[in-house]
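During the second half of the funding period, the structural biology subgroup turned its attention to how the target accommodates small molecules. The most pressing case was zinc ion, which had performed well in the primary screen but for which no bound structure existed. We therefore specified the complex as follows and requested a full 3D prediction, including the ligand pose.
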Amino acid sequence: MSPSEAPAKPLELTTPAAWLDATLPIRTGMAHWPDNLGVTVVLTHDMAAGSPANVTELHLSAHTGTHVDAPRHFLADGADVTTLDLRTLMGPAVVVSIQDPHFITLQEIRPLPLQPGDRVLFKTRNSDSDWSQEPFNPDFVRLNAHAAHYLQALGVVCVGVDYLSVGPADTHLALLGAGVTVIEGLALQHIAPGRYDMLCLPLPIVGADGAPARVLLRPV
Ligand SMILES: [Zn+2]
């Protein structure tokens, strides 16, 4: 089967008991930011064609699927993804449901019982569909800069969103510029709002402004 014939339906990732997977499977043709490289997963050595082993080649942006942004993404001299403090990506996290169909706003998040040190993952209208297998949607729900500044001032250490971008440049800067880690492209379709333990481990790609990550959530 060639990659282009890969099944289009959602894939059940195998996850240890009690852990839920919030990671998008990486596959050929999945949604990607329009000016980034499209995603191709291609078999370059094929046992079916006589090769002694199968070898797959990946063509993708650092901001593919479920991934973490490094400061370098929006800060010219910012740190790369190898220097991220993994403590911001491992530990207690809260999945919050957002009702606004366009923005994650200060008005909607101010009443939430968020605390310093929290990792906050926003589940929005984006998660109503399996968007990674649909064309890029420029109308995704995003975090506005006021809300980003509020989260940073509150002492939140990580912000996660359920589409390919957390928001415009000023939103990125409010978070990355203050050392708040950003996870984008979370698969939250089957994750209920509530408290979890989170493991998010981006690949240590030297010099990269982001990296794909596996994200697991365990209800607490
Ligand atoms: Zn990104």
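Two results from this model are relevant to the next phase. The CA atoms of residues 18 and 218 lie 6 Å apart. The longest helix spans residues 145-154.
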